[in-house]
């Protein structure tokens, strides 16, 4: 095993030699974010993958994100440094389950959160991410039934924001976000009553927090945002204290960009074990050996791409 700085230097050299780009999600370990060419949320990473002129993409995130990059860039090689980096939410629905669900609602439009496998995307009409789920849903004619999957907390949030009554929501959840409850918010607000609340829509507390905010129960404002939305909001807000309800990897960029502000994680142990599987050593090995290539069969890819492109067009 090499020292951290040695990995840094070697990764930079290999990246140049191979015309590679490193994309990292906001939940990645700090040292991975620091060597990445681009760090962002699911939507920004899809756009970065689609727009890069590199030959090789090393995707530091979870498998469905790397798969999305592979779907959008068939002419490039997409690598994931650890094939075990999955997602509990993406595993919450299988292709068979979706086929059965669709057969019960043959006229419905299927909107799949980006946290799904390529197979699920291929069976969907639209893809969405946490930053555009409301917009995508609003773009569907109001009289059309919607099947929204797989996150029930994001689904309830979207139904609340759009006022849609004809939305069926799959009962899936992310094990990291589902555990963030309104009780945690109360506990945190007792200690930090003047902090603004930033909540990821996958959190179990999203709709109850919005309800209480609407009732005037908080001193400061409450915002439901994607990870990138949270980072941007924290920089532009005049507040100097924020309670952050999402995976704690996000605090690295927030603190770097706002050294004078204070960020309190809603839960210190909100850690996505899958995101943390990516290490500098594995990124180095990935570049050196050109592993592990993310492949999506052509037939699945072309149908999944349609759902993603419909999203990007909205
Ligand atoms: P973002 O698209 O907001 O980064 O969320 C992705 C994710 O996996 C949240 O758990
Ligand atoms: Fe999936 Fe949850 Fe990890 Fe996000 S935090 S990648 S939804 S397991």
What does the secondary structure layout of this molecule look like, with pairings?
Blueprint: H1 4-18, E1 20-25, H2 30-35, E2 38-40, H3 42-51, E3 56-60, H4 63-72, E4 77-79, H5 95-104, E5 109-113, H6 118-122, E6 126-128, H7 133-138, E7 146-149, H8 152-162, E8 167-169, H9 175-178, H10 182-191, E9 196-199, H11 206-214, E10 222-224, H12 227-236, E11 241-245, H13 251-257, E12 262-265, H14 280-289, H15 298-313
Parallel strand pairs: 1-2, 1-3, 3-4, 5-6, 5-7, 7-8, 9-10, 9-11, 11-12
Helix pairs in contact: 1-14, 3-4, 4-15
Characteristics of this structure?
Rossmann fold; four-stranded parallel β-sheet; 314 residues; 3 domains; binds iron/sulfur cluster; binds 1,3-dihydroxyacetonephosphate; alpha/beta
What does this structure look like?
By secondary structure, the protein is an alpha/beta fold. The chain has 3 domains: 4-86 and 275-295, 3-Layer(aba) Sandwich (Rossmann fold); 90-174, 3-Layer(aba) Sandwich (Rossmann fold); 177-265, NadA-like (Rossmann fold), CATH 3.40.50.10800. Helices cover 44% and strands 15% of the residues. The protein contains 15 helices and 12 strands. The strands form 3 sheets. A 4-stranded parallel beta sheet has the order 2-1-3-4, sandwiched between helices. Helix 2 links the parallel strand 1 and strand 2. Helix 1 runs parallel beside helix 14 (280-289). The longest helix has 16 residues, at 298-313. It starts with a helix and ends with a helix. Residues 62, 87-89, 115, 174, 176-177, 202, 247, 272, 274-275 line the site of iron/sulfur cluster (SF4).
């Amino acid at each position: 095993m090499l020292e951290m700085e040695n990995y840094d230097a070697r990764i930079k050299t290999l990246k140049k030699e191979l015309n590679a780009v490193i994309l990292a999600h906001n939940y990645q370990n700090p040292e991975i974010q620091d060597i990445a060419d681009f760090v962002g949320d699911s939507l920004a990473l899809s756009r970065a993958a689609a727009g890069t002129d590199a030959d090789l993409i090393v995707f530091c995130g979870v498998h469905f994100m790397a798969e999305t990059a592979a779907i959008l860039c068939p002419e490039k090689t997409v690598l994931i440094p650890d094939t075990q980096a999955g997602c509990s939410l993406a595993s919450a629905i299988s292709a068979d389950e979706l086929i059965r669900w669709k057969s019960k609602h043959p006229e419905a439009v299927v909107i799949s959160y980006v946290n799904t496998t390529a197979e699920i995307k291929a069976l969907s009409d639209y893809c969405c991410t946490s930053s555009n789920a409301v917009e995508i849903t609003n773009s569907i004619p109001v009289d059309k039934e919607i099947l929204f999957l797989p996150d029930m907390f994001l689904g309830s949030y979207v139904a609340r924001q759009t006022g849609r009554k004809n939305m069926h929501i799959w009962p899936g959840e992310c094990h990291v976000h589902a555990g963030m409850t309104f009780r945690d918010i109360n506990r945190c607000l007792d200690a930090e009553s003047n902090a603004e609340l930033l909540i990821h829509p996958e959190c179990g507390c999203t709709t109850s927090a919005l309800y209480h905010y609407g009732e005037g129960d908080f001193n400061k404002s409450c915002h439901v945002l994607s990870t990138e939305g949270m980072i941007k909001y924290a920089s532009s807000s005049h507040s100097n204290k924020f309670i952050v309800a999402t995976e704690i990897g996000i605090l690295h960029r927030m603190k770097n960009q706002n050294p004078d502000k204070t960020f309190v994680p809603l839960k210190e142990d909100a850690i996505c074990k899958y995101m943390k599987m990516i290490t500098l050593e594995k990124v180095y090995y990935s570049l050196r050996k050109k592993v592990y290539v993310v492949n999506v069969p052509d037939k699945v890819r072309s149908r999944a791409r349609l759902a993603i492109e419909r999203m990007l067009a909205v």
